[in-house]
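Lecture notes, part 5. Sequence design as translation. It can be helpful to think of inverse folding as translation between two languages: the language of shapes and the language of residues. The source text, in structure tokens, appears below.
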């Protein structure tokens, strides 16, 4: 138990800064052949870490960070924790009376300290050992866990400059975590075009046809026991990791709710990919945006949920133009990323016919969500009004469930409309007339009409 989390988190980070300071000095000593240059920075062991002592130490142990990774992380957070440890990198090359270009780094009048760049990281690791550049390439790759989970970032430099000229820094939410020990969810942005999907419902609120629920239970079983099958049963020797499912059916039939509940009952996080932020008119940008999501999720036990997936995973067309070729290349790219993703992916679409067969035949489960039958509709009506409104004596839910073919989402819309009517009357009672009028309005959305004359008092 940590008595003072902030103090102990800071102490751990300051110890890491002291080690970074020693490393920087030794690297420069090696590079400039100063006294003691025969020693190597790699011989300077990073501080020992223990479990449950600080957020940083827990991260080192949980992620099994090696010396190169710890050095990279320390460098990225130095300007925010202890900027003076990098001041020595402001040194002047006496031969040309200017800074050492190989040190990288930039400065800013508002900050005054040395801001490390990708080149700075390369100098510290590989300045005296050029073959070690491969470790730098790995650390700055978008597939590395630091980059994938947005722990560190290499800011984009001017297009005319080398890629490594960008500032190398720790992201704000990870710096906050290392200081406070409190995690925050990734924020929806162009660098992470997805957001957490949550639901207030419980599993018993899920009302589906028996055959549909049977297929959904198969997914739940995989989420519960898939890891055991892949490792203990050695199924991983025969099949690729991960699980892929398609939910298809009319709007409002429970596709999104089911995905959210699968995550909830298996204690996982589910992220809904925001297609408007993913799809770009520029060739290559859509793949880049999607790659960020897959890279982050590959290190997490997340479910990725793509709604209206046919807009991204639609049928490939004849290549009659460059746009067609690009669309087909995108489809192929998505197929490959999904096949290689070790987690669970759920695609949702209103029309299965819009999906490319190359996708559907590679999915483990195709679940068709249908408009609920009379018995399912009755349960949905009962669940909707429970603990929200009181039903008047003239309400015949069983008759309404039998006569009106409505999806769960539509029933919730009707509940909202009825509740508004009741509260305007300063009461909680909903009458048969309220229900029928709200049903009529819901049908009008689809240009459908119903005859409610004489039905207000049906029993």
């Amino acid at each position: 138990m940590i008595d003072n989390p902030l103090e102990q988190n800071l102490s751990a980070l300051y110890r890491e800064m002291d080690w970074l300071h020693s490393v920087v000095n030794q690297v420069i000593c090696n590079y400039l052949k100063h006294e003691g240059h025969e020693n190597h920075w790699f011989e300077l062991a990073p501080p020992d870490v223990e479990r449950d002592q600080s957020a940083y130490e827990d991260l080192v142990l949980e992620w099994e960070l090696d010396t190169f990774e710890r050095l990279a992380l320390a460098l990225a957070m130095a300007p925010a924790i202890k900027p003076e440890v990098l001041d020595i990198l402001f040194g002047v090359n006496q031969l040309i009376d200017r800074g050492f270009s190989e040190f990288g780094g930039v400065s800013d009048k508002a900050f005054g300290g040395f801001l490390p760049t990708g080149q700075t990281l390369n100098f510290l690791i590989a300045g005296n050992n050029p073959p070690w550049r491969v470790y730098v390439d790995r650390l700055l790759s978008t597939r590395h866990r630091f980059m994938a989970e947005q722990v560190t970032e290499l800011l984009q430099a001017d297009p005319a400059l080398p890629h490594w000229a960008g500032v190398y820094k720790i992201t704000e939410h990870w710096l906050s975590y290392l200081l406070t020990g409190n995690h925050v969810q990734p924020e929806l942005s162009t660098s992470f075009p997805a957001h957490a999907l949550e639901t207030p419902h419980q599993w018993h609120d899920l009302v589906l046809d028996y055959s549909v629920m049977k297929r959904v239970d198969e997914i739940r079983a995989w989420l519960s026991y898939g890891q055991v099958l892949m490792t203990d049963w050695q199924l991983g020797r025969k099949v690729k990791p991960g699980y892929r499912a398609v939910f298809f059916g009319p709007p409002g039939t429970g596709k999104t709710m089911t995905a959210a509940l699968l995550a909830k009952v298996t204690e996982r996080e589910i992220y809904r990919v925001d297609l408007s932020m993913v799809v770009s008119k520029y060739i290559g940008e859509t793949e880049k945006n999607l790659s960020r999501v897959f890279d982050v999720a590959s290190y997490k036990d997340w479910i990725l949920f793509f709604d209206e997936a046919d807009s991204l995973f639609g049928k490939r067309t004849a290549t009659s133009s460059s746009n067609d070729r690009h669309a087909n290349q995108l489809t192929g790219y998505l197929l490959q990323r999904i096949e290689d993703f070790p987690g669970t992916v759920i695609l949702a679409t209103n029309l299965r016919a819009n999906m490319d067969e190359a996708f559907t035949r590679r999915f483990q489960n195709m679940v068709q969500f249908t408009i609920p039958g009379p018995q399912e509709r009755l349960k949905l009506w009962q669940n909707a009004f429970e603990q929200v409104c009181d039903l008047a004596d003239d309400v015949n839910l069983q008759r309404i469930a039998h006569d009106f073919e409505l999806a769960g989402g539509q029933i919730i819309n009707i509940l909202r409309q009825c509740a508004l009517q009741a509260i305007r009357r300063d009461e909680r009672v909903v009458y048969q007339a309220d229900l029928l009028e709200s049903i009529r309005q819901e049908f009008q959305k689809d240009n459908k009409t119903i005859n409610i004359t004489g039905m207000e008092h049906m029993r």
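The translated text above is only one of many valid answers, since several sequences can fold into similar shapes. The mean pLDDT is 87.
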